[in-house]
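Q: I have 247 residues here and want to know how they pack in 3D. Can you give me a structure?
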Amino acid sequence: MDKNLIRKANLQLLIDRQYGIGTRGAKAAFAKTIDVQPDYLSRCLYPPGKKGGKNIGEDVARRIEKVYKLAEHSLDKPRLAEAESVETIDIEGLPPALAQKIRSYRPLVSIERFDIAGSMGPGTEPPEMNMVVENMSLDASWVRQNLTYTKVENLKLISGRGDSMAPTIRSGDAVIVDAGVTSVESDAIYCFLMRGQMQIKRIQRGLDGLRIISDNAQYPPIDIPGDRESDITVLAQIIYWWTGRSF
């Protein structure tokens, strides 16, 4: 296996171990720890062949090992990348089907699905009790590459009801929310309470307050002045929905 690819895999593994899979700001924090520019670190993690990607140089590789008290040149060895994988199991002598299953094992992220439907319309009463009805397992690598979130523990699955966010989110679509986001820091789609009603809408921040927007043009926007922002309680940010598009 190419040494640069091994270093890349080991670098990502160290970041995930230190901060959790896909944790927001993890790359910048790791870059600060090893004294490199965040942009350089991000480029080192680009997929192979992506324009602008960087290789992890000798000096940086040895520095990472020193900072994290790893044996010299351990960043160059596949064993580090496999350290938490079931591929470290000795598969010699196992039945071929079982050996292949172990080889193809991929770590999973389990996301709780709640019996909650956020209104994409006039609003609904929030449930009295949040009940987990099932767990969805997602490939950890896919989660890391496709979602941006605060902590993996904050990822939850709910559904949307109504047509006010169509065609972006359709009624009945499953949506992944980040419950670690509880304020409007950027223009995004949020699950929130307004006057006791739970809704899913797009929220934009302006100079003098918030604007609540439905992607369906039949629903007019709602302006919330700055002195009334307390009327909005953000429960989570919508970060993915099952029309195959992320926000």
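Q: Anything worth noting?
A: The chain has seven helices and ten strands. Strands lie at 108-119, 132-139, 155-161, 174-178, 188-194, 197-206, 209-213, 222-225, 232-241, 245-246.
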